Amino acid sequence: MPPPMPLSPYLAAVSLLLAAAFSSGWTLHAAAELPRFREAPAFRNGPGCASAPTIHIAMTLDATYLRGSLAGVLSILRHSSCPESISFNFLATRPRRFRPAVSASFPSLSFDVYRFDPALVRGRISSSVRRALDQPLNYARIYLADILPRSVHRVIYFDSDLVVVDDVARLWATDLSPDHVLAAPEYCHANFTSYFTDRFWSDPVYPDALNDRRRSPCYFNTGVMVMDLDRWRAGGYTRKLEAWMEVQKREARIYELGSLPPFLLVFAGEVKGVEHRWNQHGLGGDNVEGLCRDLHPGPVSLLHWSGKGKPWLRLDAGRPCQLDALWAPYDLLRRDGRDDLFADI
């Protein structure tokens, strides 16, 4: 048998690269794995925007929720009176993978993509009722004040499963004086005790953390928050949230719902209330079945598909809920023969 032919220098180099990648535990992703999205229209400021403040918005980007994130961006721009005054601050574990997708759909968008290092939460995440809640990027909102530049003093954080149907400047104008760190819609009718385990409530020390608040602690959804980053940094709130994550991981199982309970433990009762219209949440159903739900009574400025059911998945499966039709016009996923944005708005 003749000796095997030597690999060409090019093939040898590729082989070495692949061997190094797999031995390091890398997962290789081709750029083609990301769906293709359409280019959105260019939205311009009107004549009254010369003195408009820069509105900073933070969102996350990953392969699972990219379609939802881009729909959210489009909805914000579509309803803004001064869209060119909005600056988007995206967090991603692999910024270079997602930056081209954002640029292709929004060529004139003012944005940055910052790297979120999953190592920040390594050893602090415990399993929850839904796998999506266990992903490191779900905890990125805790680190906004550390990752974004110091020049960003305030930010609106939005989840990637929502659309805005009002001018986001109205939410930006939320008054955080005299010393609030965070503003969000509160839901004081919800059973606050249900967000923590019996082990938490039976502990002689843990519940004391909820004493001495400005008001009785109430549930709020962390998918829509106005955050004063200067006060966050000065108060060391990242570390306060991490401390409860470490209690959960190392001492006792005190909650079941991912990144939400630490926020409740640190901020509930200290939140500046926002009108409920700014988070019509729960449209994705619960965290187990994701069944269809109706809107809460009252006006609507933001639709939020929190819960297991996501509108793009239900639409693709041909089993949409009635309210998913309100998300569909903002879907930028490229489909042959369907490029007429806003035809249904």
UniProtKB/TrEMBL annotation:
The keyword S-adenosyl-L-methionine does not apply. Keywords: Glycoprotein, Glycosyltransferase, Membrane, Signal, Signal-anchor, Transferase, Transmembrane, Transmembrane helix. Its EC number is 2.4.1.-. One of its GO terms (molecular function) is glycosyltransferase activity. It is an enzyme of class 2 (transferase). InterPro entries: Glyco_trans_8 (IPR002495), Glycosyltrans_8_dom-fam (IPR050748), Nucleotide-diphossugar_trans (IPR029044). SUPFAM superfamilies: Nucleotide-diphospho-sugar transferases. Pathway: Glycan metabolism; pectin biosynthesis. It is found in: Endomembrane system. GO terms for cellular component: Golgi apparatus. It is a single-pass type II membrane protein. Residues 1-32 form the signal peptide. It comes from the Eukaryota. Belongs to the glycosyltransferase 8 family. This is Hexosyltransferase. It comes from Musa acuminata subsp. malaccensis (Wild banana).
